[in-house]
Each structure stands twice: as structure tokens, then as C-alpha cells.
Input
Amino acid sequence: MSATNSDIRSSETAAQGEGRIDWALQEMPVVRGMLPQLEAERPLRDMRISACLHITTETANLARALKTAGADLVLCASNPLSTQDDVAAALVEKFEIPVFAIRGESNEVYYRHIDSAIAHRPQITLDDGADLVSRIHQHHPELLDDMLGGTEETTTGVIRLRAMAAEGALGYPIIAVNDALTKHLFDNRYGTGQSALDGIMRATNVLLAGKVFTVVGYGWCGRGIAMRARGLGAQVVVTEVDPLRALEAAMDGFRVLPLHEAAQVSDFVTTATGDRHVVDRTHLELMKDGCILSNAGHFNVEINLPALESMSDSKSRPRPSVEEYRLPGGRRLRVLAEGRLVNLSAAEGHPSAVMDMSFANQVLSVIHLAQHAHQLEKGVHRVPDALDSEVARLKLAAMGLKIDHLTPEQQAYLASWREGT
Ligand code: ADE
Output
């Protein structure tokens, strides 16, 4: 597809976008290090690929790598509020990659853009949240026959795909990039930890030190947010539904409370559960005046915003990413970024250095699909362990870190069972 067939806000900011993409590449040594071999071997030559991802500087470098590998690539946004318009402009104008994404697009335009990426008739899909895959299955099943495979970037997407597979509805093999250790242990934890706090601070400029900060959900994202909020001096509360995770949060030193108790004392509440209405009307009714609510989960469903709308007398926008709801009696609740991913909507998403590992997994997984998809059954697959380890090895080397190696004596000891005390 020609890059002239795109839908972006404007081409005027392409130079700025290009500069920021190059800046990000400096922090992405693993992806950068792959480029010469991708160019020499072109393992994705002429492969039609559609990618539904957050349009950020890091995604631009992934796109660059896929194009360098020979792919015929089209991009669309995986969230209406996460697109960086200057990056979209640079992709189209400087890298000749078609993009369908405009920051702030309506839901209708969001799906129209996904449909434009589907019109590319992809043989491989990259998804972040599974909207592209879901749309293909529901509206374009005729594409399934020629589809080689796909990748999925995020926890929510993998959960959706597993639900499709369990119903027998998933029509092609998908590699769960999210589940690679070099992805979720770093991107979900350190990436979300830094970028969610970055989004909350950019949106509000409110001091965290001494405040009560509640994290709803102690998965890898919640762990990262709790850790970084504590680092900024907040008193961190964790709420959970899973006893094991609750126990872990308690022993990590966090206060564990049910949300209806936490709601009454919190200055900040941030959700990271992947589920719907975890902050519900009953919690909203209990919150303190001025409480700042945000969401770091994939979809804007975690805070029950329709309930908040119906409870409120009025709504204003005191800062660009803040909506202040005024409730009867004068109590105010502040919602960041319309309850969408706060890290990508109010900041720039995860820092490049963690996306480097996530997107190195993407590049290796897409090449794996191009070479082995016919051997993979329809369903959700792991990133092969060898690829995951390779990403760790490359990242360590890029960081200039060396590790020890087992001696033959130690290897033999680990392989034996006879010797004890
Ligand atoms: N998801 C979270 N952060 C991201 C980023 N910087 N780029 C693309 N996807 C992301």
C-alpha cells in the first residue's frame, strides 16, 4: 500500500516526529542491532503485515525494523488517545509507511482506521489489545484462509485471544509476546511503573509525597505502579481479589485493603486489573473530595464512568488531561485521560529502553511466524524460549553487563541426584 493512502492529523510535524524517533532509537540497542541483518536477509520480503499498535516513537522503530526486513507494512492505532501525531506524520512522510491514526479520534474513526489496515489484506497481524484480530474474525472472516499468524503485545489481548481459542473461534496461530519473560517482567512492571506515574504527574503536577495512593490490582503492572509510587513518597495501598497476590503485596510492604475501605482514604486511585467497573458506583460514593482517578489497564472500562456521569451535577476540564466531576454537596472527583491508559494518553507510554525488549520479541516472533507458521496450530502460542533468552542476552550485552557461567563441575552437580549432604 502506498504511504499516500493514510489518514493522519497533518504532515507538518514530520520533522519533529523523525527527530523523536531517532532519539528513541538510541535507547533501543537490541532492535537497532538487528537492523543490519534484517536488511541483508530481508526475512519478511513482500509479506503483507497490518499492525494495530500505539503509535509512539518506539512503535515507529519497530515499524522501521519490519520494513527493513522487507515487510509491506500498514499501521493503525490500538487506542484512540495514544497516537503521537508527529510520529504518525514521520512514518508516512519520512519512512513511507502508511498510517491510519489520529490522536483523539472518535470510536467510529478508530474502527474505520482498523478497517483500513484490514483492507491491506494482511498475512500477519500485530495487535495490542486484540481489536484487530477480533474485527477480522467478526467482519472479515474471508481473510482467515490466507492468514499466516499474528502476535499480541498485551495481557488484555492475550486474555481475549485465549477466550476466543477456548470457544474454538480463533482462526489462526498467535504468538503471545506479552507472555515472554523479557516482555512482561520489564515492560509491564518497570515500563508501566514509570510511565503511569509520569502520566499522573504530567496530567496533574500534584505532589505524591505523603499522599495515600491506591493501586487496584497487583499483577505485573500494579506491582510496578506500587513500587514507583512508594519511591515518590506516597503511602501505597494495594487492593486485590486474588489471595496470593494480596499476600505478596502485603509482604512487599504495602497496606492491603478492600477497595471500599481504601476509597475513603485515597488521594489517588489507579486501576491496573484488565477488568470492568472495578471502581464502581459504590466506591465512587465513598471517595474523598479531590480524589484523582486514573487507569493503567488496556481499556477504558475499569472506572465506571457512566455511573460517575449520572452521579454528577457538572463536569469541567481544569487541565488538558483532567476532567473534574462535581457531585451533589460539592465533592469533586478528578478523572485523568477519560479513564483511558494514563501512561499513553497523558504521557508518552513506556520508556524506549523497555520497549526495546518488547519489540525485539515482536520482530523475532514475526520472523518466526513467517518461517514456521504452517507448523503452528490455530491457537495462542508462547514466544519460543530460545528467542526470549536471546533477547535477554542481547539486552545484557547492550547494557555492557557480563554474567558468570557454570563450571563443568557445577553443571554435573545440577544434573545429578545422588549426592546430598
Ligand atoms: N505500550 C506501552 N508503552 C508503549 C510505547 N511507548 N510504545 C508502544 N506501545 C506501548
